[in-house]
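Teaching assistant's notes for section 4

Start the section by putting this record on the projector. Ask students to predict, before seeing the second block, whether RNA polymerase sigma factor RpoH will look compact or extended. Collect guesses on the board.
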Amino acid sequence: MSQTMQLTVPQSGSIEAYMQSAYSIPMLTAEREHELATRLYNENDLQAAQELIMSHLRFVIHVAKGYAGYGLPQADLVQEGNVGLMKAVKRFNPEVGVRLVSFAVHWIKAEIHEFVLKNWRIVKVATTKAQRKLFFNLRKNKKRLGWFSNEEVNTVAETLGVSTKDVMEMESRMSTHDQAFELSNDDDDNANASNFSPAQYLEDKQSDLAVEVENENWETHANNRLSTALVTLDDRSQDIIKTRWLDEDKSTLQELANKYQISAERVRQLEKNALSKLKHSMAV
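Reveal the predicted structure now:
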C-alpha cells in the first residue's frame, strides 16, 4: 500500500475499499513513531507527518464506528476524524512520553463530536412542521422573555399543537451554550502556553486504543486462519473440534462416543490428532 493514499474519504460505496486500504498500512513501532514525531516536531518534516497520519487512519475508522448509531454517513464521520488526526499530529510532542494514538484519540473524537452535534441538531431540533414553527416562535419570543413560566409554556404548546415537554426541551436547547473543547479557528495556528484547549491535557487511563485495535485485528485474523484450517479436517474431526471447543454448549467425550458408535478414548485420540493438525496448519 502506497503511503500517498488520499485522505479524502469517498462519499459512495467505495468507503469499504478506503477502509481496506487504511487497514493495509502497517502500524508503527514505538521507536519509529518517536523518530518520525521528533523529525516533525524539531524540523517540521512533512514527510514524517504524512507517515504518522497514514499509519493512524485505521484508528480514525475504529473511533468513527462508535458513532454509527446517529444515522450519519460513515464516510463523513471518518473524514471529520481525519481532520482531528491531522490536528493531533501537528501538536504532538514526542517528549511527553505517550503514544500518538493516546493523544490523538481526543482530537479525533472532538472533530466527530462537533460534526455529529451540528448535524444531529439539524435533524432533531426541527424535524416536523410543528417543531419548526415552535423553534422560530421561541426565537422571536426569546428577544423579550427569559425562561417561560408554566402558563406561557402551556399557552405556546396549545397554540402550536405540541406537548409542553417539546416546548421546555426546545427552550432548554436554545438557552444552552457549548463549552469549546478545542482551540477556536482564530487560535488554531497560534497555540501557546497561555492559549490552550482542554483536549490537549486529557488522558484516558481506562483504555489503550492501540491495544484495542491490535487485539481486534488479531482476533479477526486468527478466526480467519482457524476457519481455513478447519476445512482441511474430515467431517467427523471437524464436528468433534466444533462441539468440543467452539460451540457454546460443548459436548462430552461420551456424548460424541455414543454419536459415532466408538469409544470415548477413540474420540479423545481423534480430538488430539485434529488439534495437532490445526496447530500445524495455522503455524504455516
